[in-house]
Amino acid sequence: MLNNIEDTVTLANGVKMPRLGLGVWQAAPEDTINAVKTAIETGYLLIDTAKAYGNEAEVGEGIKAGLAATGKSREDLFITTKLANADQGYESTLENFQASLDRLQLDYLDLYLIHWPVAGKWAETWRAFEKLYNDGRVRAIGVCNFTEATMQSLIAQSEIKPMVNQIEYHPLLQQPELKQYLDAQGIQAEAWSPLGGTGGNLMQNPIIGDIALKHHKSPAQVLIRWDLQNSYVTIPKSVHPEYIQANADVFDFELDSDDLCQLKALDQHLRTSYWLTTFDWYTGNEQ
Predict the structure, then answer these.
(1) Which residue among 26, 87, 132, 163 is least crowded, i.e. fewest CB within 10 A of its CB?
(2) Pairing outcome for strands 285-286 and 16-18
(3) 126, exposed or middle or buried, with CB in 10 Å at 0-12, 13-18, 19+?
(4) Can you tell me the distance from the alpha carbon of 33 to that of 44, in angstroms, rounded to the nearest whole number?
(5) Does residue 255 contact residue 226 with C-beta atoms inside 8 Å?
(6) Residue 143: closest CA among 77, 50, 57
């Protein structure tokens, strides 16, 4: 049952991860502090960033401001960041983990993710992730943008299975086979670009618009609710206080079977990600 913004899913290692969070991909540094503060004030517990976004320091400032404004403690939040592609490798991963902590002004992370499965690097990178986890410096570890094939390869070389795979997910790109595989492996799926990014202008899609009208909600709220009902963790991005607040207002309605059927029919296998459409992760070559 989805009741409120504090609802969680339990990862394979027993850690509880919030179902809904704030993403800050493409959030300008000057907008990020207030966005994170607003999110925490609104009740968000999950904040997702990455070194590659160039705003970890501002996320850290926003966390401080949000905690001060609400009286919450660091332990109430679930903070995720990601290792940049150029930083992969065993020693480099350990160094860059600490650098991310320093920018975020944190003593530990709740979730650390490999941002992309860089060819020839992910196995030794994951070994460093396992060390960080075993040393208690991060509560959960996972990956982003791994296909079933790259995930199988990683698991075969690992002692600890990834707990999360953050992938592009929206009605135009549903990847049901990958979700089925992740579920079977006990790996939580997390949606990035849940509102469709630049790939298909879902906010103007007439089917989504009709479903939104039916429930007296916005298209964005329909898409976020769809993620939640499909057992994804989801991290819609916004820097506008009114949208951050509206994106959290998704717990007072439910999409019915007809809604879900219509949304399922929108799948076009349409990626907004250049890297997964043009790059061979096994060889590191352009396709």
Answers:
(1) 26
(2) unpaired
(3) buried
(4) 14
(5) yes
(6) 50
Count of CB atoms situated within 10 Å of the CB of 137: 16
Phi then psi for 243, rounded to 5 degrees?
-80, -40
**Which single residue is written with the structure tokens 């960033």?**
49
List residues with catalytic annotation: 53
pTM > 0.90: yes
Binding residues for substrate: 115
Give the Cα separation of 192 and 235 in Å (integer). 6
Tell me which fold the domain 8-282 belongs to.
Answer: TIM Barrel (3.20.20)
DSSP type of residue 208:
H
How far apart CA 271 and CA 274 sit, in angstroms, is 8
Q: Are the C-beta atoms of 22 and 46 separated by less than 8 Å?
A: yes
Q: Which residues sit in the known binding site?
A: 115
The Cβ of residue 84 has, within 10 Å, a number of other Cβ atoms equal to 18
**Which residue is it, tokens 């966390």?**
63
Q: Are 119 and 280 a contacting pair, CB within 8 Å?
A: yes
Which amino acid appears at position 43 of this protein? Answer: G
Residues 6 or more apart whose Cβ sits within 8 Å of residue 257: none
Q: How many other C-beta atoms lie within 10 A of the C-beta of residue 281?
A: 21
How does pLDDT run across 46-104, given as a tens digit for each residue? 999 999 999 999 999 999 999 999 999 999 999 999 999 999 999 999 999 999 999 99
